[in-house]
Every structure is written in structure tokens, then in C-alpha cells.
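Sat 14:20. Reprocessing the chain from the morning session after the first attempt stalled halfway. Input below, unchanged.
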Amino acid sequence: MISKITCNNLKKYYAGNSTLSDVSLHMQSNAITGLLGSNGAGKSTLIKSLLGLIYPDSGEIDGLTGKKTAYLPEIVSLPKSSSAWQLIQLALSLKGESGDPASLLQMVDINKAKWHQPLRTFSKGMRQRVALAYAFAGNPDWVILDEPMSGLDALGRRETLHIIKQAHQRGTGILICSHIVPDLVRICNTILVMSAGVIVKTHRVQEHSMQEASKLEDFLSRLEKDMKHA
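Finished this time. C-alpha cells:
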């Protein structure tokens, strides 16, 4: 069954300054949606509004109430003395599930020999994969990812994108925020471009190619130049 998230005319102000200006969007779980924009564009404010972590000053959000939703923030601090197995077992317990951590650790390609070793022995890329397993534990309806490829090398980003795509194929709705345009073009069906608290472009991905990513990067570059001269 397709799940939907909609928001209409969201506005949010901090100290009299607008961080969201009349934002409206529509997302469906059968498509991976990307959120793209420079620092200060309003991406994090929009994500936190969708999650109910902050409340917009006006506007409506519909879709996440009653849904199982997971959120993976940009900066993740995992308990380094715990093992990957213990952490995923905790995630399942907190979500009221009785699943097996093994299937989730296999999904994110953690070597079986590492399952019971402390996370302090893991590389950044491995810890990020464990964090993804934590987010996807319990088969959530939606997973919202804020810069999940941050700090990863090209191989780590490719592995992360593969994991996200696999989870989506199993029916999870995905909203992914990133500043790495080629990564979003590679995996997303739709990319929402934000600037100054407004969604300025809804890009329907056609080719999933580097050429398409380059054109979108050119659009972002022109947008930032226009903002500087505004």
C-alpha cells in the first residue's frame, strides 16, 4: 500500500526571520525523494517539522501520524562499547519487534565476525552502515535520512546508496537530504531543491546519469549566484 506525506503552506520564523516560506510538497512511498540545497536553505527545519520535533508557525502536515517513522540525523553518536548486535537488538526491542539482528546486519553488509565486537573497532563507514540498520529495524513505513553519506568515501557512499535502495524496494518510503548531487540523482525519483526556505524546483529524475547531475549542479550554482546578488 502506498503511503503519502503532504504539507501545505508551511511557514517557520526564528527571531523574526523566515526559515520556511510557504513550503508545500507531496511525497509517496513508492518513490525515493531527495532534498537538496545549500547550508541555511531550510532543509533541516523542514525535516524537523515533518517529524514533529518543531512546530511550524502556520501550515498543515499530513501523513506521518500513525506511521512508523525512523530518522537518521547527520551526526550519529553510537555507544562505542556496545556491539552491532546489541545495538540492533536494542532497536528492535524499543520498536516492539522480535526480529533477528542477523538479517539487518546482513542487509548492511557487516561481516559476521564483527557482529559481537565493540563499535569502537569499526571504521566510520561501518558505523554508518550499523546506524542505517538501526534506522531500518522494525520495517518502518518511512525513513528520513539527513546527510547519510557525510564523511564517507566513494565506496562507502555507493554501499550506503545500495542499502537505501534495497530498503525502499521492500516498501519503505525514503526522504533523503544530501548536498552530493550525483548521489541523489543516482538513487532518487524526485529531487526537491530548496533555497531561502522555499522549494524552488521539483526535479523529476529521468536518466540517473552524471550528465543529469551536472545540469542540476549548474542550476544550483546559478541559484547561489543569484542569491548572493539579490
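The CA atoms of residues 139 and 172 lie 7 Å apart.
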